[in-house]
Specification:
The chain has 472 residues and is α+β, with helices and mostly antiparallel strands. It has 11 helices and 30 strands. Strands 17, 18, 19, 20, 22, 24, 26, 29 and 30 form a 9-stranded mixed beta sheet that branches. β27 and β28 form a beta hairpin. The longest helix has 23 residues. The protein is elongated. The N and C termini lie far apart (59 Å).
Length: 472
């Protein structure tokens, strides 16, 4: 059973949800192909959150609806718009074909989840095309269960798809669609389904037919990914030294935010961006054959990068094998990456340094990763150079190394770093003039008035005023 998504196509948001049924034969799992019949052109994916009913629900109240949900998983409500004309409203032939409702790969216990704190992400060929959270649901999950139970008894094992966010669109044979649902530290994993070309439909029934309106509805509005990092924050992180950031983090009780042992492939490199993560595990030859070949986690991580991402590789500090080479570095640059940080080895170090991508690494090494590492997974918390890095953390780098910046502290850190560096410029001038450092470094009360006077003079020279504390 599926709900019709709010705002689908050009229609306004509905006052009440609507539903349609999908046959059990449409169910499939991760790895199964979405087969587009030959002659159809508009196979559409819709990443959705699937609710699996755990106990019979009959005329339940909205506030109790969520308690009847036992499991949550990822789903793809696929369909061919070429056949919508045949069953207007029911979607039976357009969305009910065999394999058109893949779900999985893991079931999450609904009792461990907050229904308004789930996240849905859909990727096509590694690119995020849907990304939304349930705190802005038009119809809460409990309301959907209650609404249906007024007239339809929901039985244990029934699956309810809950609608798709913006970004659903057309895919073609050769594409790969991945849907993932997460809540807190729990994740369904990626429901991965390749798109394949099937045989043409037999002629004794409705045949594919589309018009410009069908095409417009199928392709939908382009998903507009928001910038990963506010331009002001990015500029701020680039404007201050990593050493200053480290000092300010330590003052806040965070002394372990440095990624130890890494240095830039090209001296003079500055970097600021948002962490995307890749984890390597120690080499096991039998597992490398399964996890290290083909489109492995290392290559998937590169293809998942968005503009502004810094790919952070956890190689356990083992620099005796390369974790990145020039071809993947070039691909990361073309994907818009802001940089790469690895506590492992770097292959093709001279070529990588010349590419123009900020890369910080533990040391140069000629060997491929299969000498020491198995690429294991992406998008998980990692330990890189002794620092815990979560996806979404901020990274800043310069010739001194790399630090991890919690996103919620970035604004105040930048402001305090600028003030610290302003004070240090004043102190440097005074030491150059011959003054001793007692009471001057760090700046003490005896020098405070002279410092504030100096700040006002600097402000006048720069053409703007500063307040009594020397701040703009």
């Amino acid at each position: 059973m599926s709900t019709t998504p709010a705002g689908e196509g050009a229609r306004p948001d509905p006052v009440q949800p609507s539903y349609f049924l999908k046959p059990p034969s449409s169910l499939s799992g991760t790895g199964d192909a979405l087969v587009r019949p030959r002659g159809c052109e508009l196979l559409v994916f819709e990443g959705e959150i699937a609710l699996v009913i755990g106990s019979r629900a009959q005329r339940v109240a909205p506030e109790d609806g969520w308690s009847y949900v036992r499991w949550v998983t990822a789903a793809n409500d696929a369909g061919v718009h070429d056949l919508r004309h045949a069953d207007r409203g029911s979607h039976l032939r357009s969305k009910g074909a065999d394999g058109f409702t893949p779900i999985g790969p893991r079931l999450l216990d609904a009792r461990q989840l907050a229904p308004d704190a789930l996240r849905l992400r859909t990727r096509v060929n590694g690119e995020v095309v849907q990304d939304d959270t349930t705190d802005t649901l038009l119809f809460p999950f409990g309301q959907l269960v209650a609404d249906l139970s007024r007239l339809v008894t929901l039985e244990p094992g029934d699956v309810l798809l809950t609608g798709t966010p913006a970004g659903a669109s057309v895919v073609t044979p050769g594409d790969v669609v991945e849907v993932e649902v997460s809540g807190g530290t729990l994740s369904t994993g990626r429901l991965r389904n390749p798109v394949a070309e099937g045989a043409p439909l037999a002629p004794y029934g409705a045949l594919p037919r589309v018009d410009p309106a069908d095409r417009a509805a199928a392709h939908g509005p382009v998903y507009p990914p928001e910038p990963l990092l506010d331009p002001g924050v990015e500029a701020g992180l680039r404007s201050v030294a990593v050493a200053t950031l480290s000092a300010q983090l330590r003052r806040r009780g965070l002394p372990h935010m440095s990624v130890d042992g890494v240095h830039p492939a090209a001296p003079g490199t500055r970097m600021a961006g948002v962490a995307h993560t890749l984890r390597y595990l120690p080499l096991r030859e039998d597992l490398f054959r399964r996890h290290g070949m083909g489109m492995n986690a290392q290559k998937r991580a590169i293809e998942e990068l968005r503009t502004g991402h810094v790919l952070v590789m956890d190689a356990r500090g083992d620099t005796s094998a390369g974790t990145l080479g020039d071809i993947l570095a070039l691909r990361a640059l073309k994907r818009g990456a802001a940089g790469v940080v690895t506590d492992g080895g770097l292959r093709d170090s001279a070529a990588v340094a010349a590419i123009g991508l900020p890369v910080f690494h533990g040391g140069a090494h000629p060997s491929v990763l299969g000498r020491r590492h198995v690429p294991w997974d992406t998008g998980v918390p990692v330990a890189c150079g002794g620092a815990l890095v979560q996806p979404g953390d901020l990274l800043a780098g310069d010739d001194d190394g790399v630090v991890v910046v919690p996103p919620d502290l970035a604004g105040e850190l930048i402001a305090d770093c600028r003030e610290q560096e302003r004070q240090e410029r004043f102190i440097t001038e005074r030491v150059t003039a011959g003054d001793g450092i007692d009471g001057l470094y760090p700046l003490g009360p005896a020098w405070r008035a002279r410092y504030e006077t100096w700040c006002r003079e600097q402000g006048r020279k720069a053409g703007h005023d500063l307040d009594e504390g020397g701040h703009e």
